[in-house]
Amino acid sequence: MTKLKNDLLIRALLRQPVPRTPVWIMRQAGRYLPEYRATRAQAGDFMSLCRNPELACEVTMQPLRRYKLDAAILFSDILTVPDAMGLGLRFAEGEGPKFERPVRNVAAIQDLPVPDVHETLGYVFDAVRTIRRELDGAVPLIGFSGSPWTVGTYMVEGGSSRDFAIIKGLAKEDPAALEAMLGKVAKMTTDYLNAQIEAGAQAIQIFDTWGAALARDDYRRFSLASMQQIVDGLTREKDGQRIPVILFTKGAGEMLADMVGTGCDALGVDWTTDLKTARTYVEDKVALQGNVNPATLRESPEVIRQAVADALASYGKGPGHVFNLGHGITPDIDPDHLGVLLDAVHELSPQYHV
Ligand code: 1CP
Fold it and tell me: In which domain, by residue range, is 98 found?
């Protein structure tokens, strides 16, 4: 096993001292990069890109060739799991994800299979192995999944949703059925992430994009409990190295305090909670990742640099900060603006680590 040449991300996630704040960017491979758009065109469509390990590796590497990043993230999607459960995923051009067979009732939940991940998602683990070979230890590779609740919103609604009316209806009418569905997704996701780790993923992030659409009690019952089930089942050490786990509930706010108890290593924070406040919620028990507003990247270089300075100052001194945006970079961003943000992190962060 190659030793990491740059292990700043792993050290920061474990709250160990680092000489500067490591940085990666959610959705760092994606549509804002012209080279990504070219590779996707070559693949034909988004799912063909995900299913081709060589091309998935290529788009994973693209942002690392341009920028000084401290991690790679597997190129895939959170919806590969329900696709493997037989729901029939397609990405209609300009429309976002759609499922042909959404899960709408108790019978569909009972019939929902939990297939073997090696038989259905082998292309993802092939991509992980291909990327690890290509990285050759330069930086760690982050594997990921969605949270069962977030994935469940797409499974029940049949695609993206504004108000989550159908799944919230199910939560009210038949909460036990919803829990059963989330339990199946959690089981499949645990196997999926463990197979990513087996194939070479060196840290794990669980994206809970829609958890904060729930009231706090419902968040605990439907989102946090199913993430807990995953964390409890994850491989936490491989080849003598701990595999850090990051939970990211967008808009978590005070719920960050509830998330610490899962046994995760780090929590993602979006820009609606400042890092100083988040640090008081988690009482320095876990590392924090974030949290510049992605919209800041539309502003001038001066504004971007100031946002970096503010986020670093808000976290303050000491270990346990991984720099990131508060959510994914959007397709409209000028790639040079991301360079400004990353240069500022490299330049301004060492003073917080003396
Ligand atoms: O047109 C295209 O090329 C597809 C756009 C795209 C990309 C680049 C989709 C479709 N998925 C991805 C890759 C992706 N998705 C990654 C790996 C790339 C990287 O981070 O560098 C990751 C981690 C995701 C995760 C993901 N997919 C989330 C959670 C993170 C988040 O941003 O909140 C969610 C909610 C999805 C669903 C999804 N997949 C794709 C789209 C457009 C969406 C969002 C749909 C919606 O808004 O409801």
Answer: 43-66+71-235
